[in-house]
Amino acid sequence: MSRLPTALLLSALSCIGAVHAQSTKPGLWEINQKMGGSAEMDQAMAQMQQQMAGMSAAEKKMMQDMLAKQGMSMPTTGAGGGMAMKVCITPEMAAKQDMPVQTEGECTTTITSRSANTLKMSFVCKKPPSSGEGTYTFSGDTAYTMKMLMKSTHQGKPVSTTLDGQGKWLSSSCGAVKPLK
User: Fold this and answer.
1) So what's the pLDDT on residue 68?
2) Is 177 helix (H, G, I), strand (E, B) or coil?
3) What letter would DSSP give residue 81?
4) Where are the domains of the chain?
5) What's the distance, CA 26 to chain centroid?
6) What are the b/e assignments for 135-144, b being 16+ CB within 10 Å?
7) What values do phi and psi take at 108, rounded to 5?
8) How far apart are CA 35 and CA 95, in angstroms?
9) Chain segment 111-126, per-residue pLDDT in tens
10) Under 8 Å CB-to-CB from 108, ≥6 apart: which residues?
11) What's the pLDDT tens digit per position in 24-39?
12) How distant is the alpha carbon of residue 142 from its chain centre?
């Protein structure tokens, strides 16, 4: 399987911080994202999901532990074949109307405009090299939808990837899910 879908998904997840730049309710959130843009991307994502489903118990535990250190839960297959994960937003993060962006992808996020319920942003990542822009539309402080376009290269060829997603507040308690670092 190509490393591109995994790398792009991780880049997209590193931009989660910008999602919560509007007023959000603290607690446990479920984030659903689906990548697309080409038949090859759809096939690679399906392969990645099959590989995740076929992991041994030890491999799953290792991945869960790695993600837990980053403040995320193990991705699962979400609605429409996307990936779903849970994140914890602390009261302090919600009060700042921001939450820390993961730095693993070495990404810089810039908010280009915001209104009462819409936020537009752009990002540039060094690992893997990629860039993009997105629009988040908020439904109060407990839900949002998102559309993003990412550009990168794979095997020397330019690749455009779409990312559609939504987030919804689940509960005031994060349970075992630790806040993002």
Assistant:
1) 63
2) coil
3) G
4) 4-171
5) 18
6) ebebeeeeeb
7) -115, 125
8) 30
9) 899 888 888 999 888 8
10) 123, 124, 125
11) 899 998 888 887 776 6
12) 17
User: Which residue shows structure tokens 């392969």?
Assistant: 47
CA distance 176 to 88: 9
The pLDDT of residue 147: 92
Kind and range of the H or E element at 169? strand 157-171
Crossing angle of the two packed helices 4-14 and 39-53, in degrees rounded to 10: 90
Q: How far is residue 145's CA from residue 134's CA, in Å, rounded to a whole number?
A: 11
Q: Which two tokens stand for residue 127?
A: 């690992």
Q: Tokens in use for 98?
A: 């921001």
Mean pLDDT of 3-11: 47
Q: What is the pTM of this model?
A: 0.68
Residue 161 CB contacts under 8 Å (≥ 6 apart), including other chains: 8, 35, 36, 37, 38, 41, 149, 150, 151, 152
Q: Which of 129, 133, 135 lies closest to 114 in space, CA to CA?
A: 135
* Token pair of 82 as six digits: 């996307």
Please provide the distance, in angstroms rounded to a whole number, between the alpha carbons at the two ends of the chain: 29
